[in-house]
Design brief:
Blueprint lengths: L13 H21 L22 E4 L4 H11 L4 E4 L6 H6 L7 E4 L6 H9 L4 E4 L7 H14 L2 E5 L7 E13 L4 E14 L6 E6 L8 E2 L18
Parallel strand pairs: 1-5, 1-6, 2-3, 2-4, 4-5
Antiparallel strand pairs: 6-7, 7-8, 8-9
Length: 235
């Protein structure tokens, strides 16, 4: 009969096993960090993971930020919805890079705004809302479950219980007007984020809109304070 010849099987060393497991963990963490919806480049370093976390709610203290935050997701082919913003500047949003063919508008949902948001969040990845009435903690918690299940980002123009972060614009300063002469050229402001991870807040100086119509870092930010001309009252 056939004789069986024992064959030695080399076992991986402990060091090789540890290195392989570390590589797998690093890959998983990288995938988790990249699984966010994109935002303008100046905002990315201020947010955990570098973007908008699927299933989370964010408060926007200024409606001016809506167009900037919808530009990148809509360009990536994601559908977005706006609820309760009848004065939303469609033309300005288009100039900021928002793909309007990917935007659903519900300008006046009246008292049904929460039901409309709940329905849209089950189907669309990004929903923006300006609540017409204060939302209660229980309502926000129930909607949070739906947001997590559908991996939808909720952008709230106003306050929202349990929000992942609050994004605001402070210290606006118009440039271009001198002593009774000149034209307004651009506006600079501090873009600030207060989040669960950074409750003290982090900020960056930005131009809105920038030369390409999108949110851009202010010239010289982090390299000294650039020379500025402030807006003055002209008789």
């Amino acid at each position: 009969g056939m004789s069986l010849v024992p064959v030695g099987v080399a076992s991986p060393s402990r060091e090789a096993t540890v290195a392989r497991l570390r590589a797998q963990v690093a890959a998983m963490e990288a995938r988790g960090q990249s699984a966010v919806y994109p935002v303008p480049s100046p905002l990315a370093p201020l947010l955990t993971g570098g973007g908008l976390k699927p299933g989370a709610a964010y408060c926007l203290e200024s409606p001016q930020l809506v167009g900037s935050l919808l530009a990148a997701p809509s360009q990536d082919g994601l559908w977005c919805a706006l609820v309760g913003l009848p004065d939303f500047g469609v033309e300005a949003a288009s100039q900021a890079g928002v793909k309007l063919e990917r935007v659903v508008l519900v300008p006046q949902p009246e008292a049904q705004w929460l039901s409309v948001v709940a329905a849209l969040s089950a189907a669309l990845p990004v929903v923006v809302v300006r609540p017409s009435t204060p939302v209660r903690q229980g309502e926000a918690a129930r909607l949070a479950t739906r947001l997590r299940d559908s991996e939808t980002v909720l952008l709230v123009v106003g306050e929202w219980p349990g929000a992942e972060a609050t994004i605001s614009l402070t210290g606006p300063q118009w440039l271009g007007v001198g002593d009774g002469w000149g034209c307004l050229t651009k506006c600079e402001a501090n873009l600030m984020v207060h989040s669960k991870r950074y409750p003290a807040g982090r900020s960056v100086r930005v131009v809105l809109p920038g030369s390409e119509g999108i949110l851009e870092p202010a010239a010289g930010w982090g390299q000294g304070t650039p020379e500025r001309t402030v807006l003055r009252m002209v008789a």
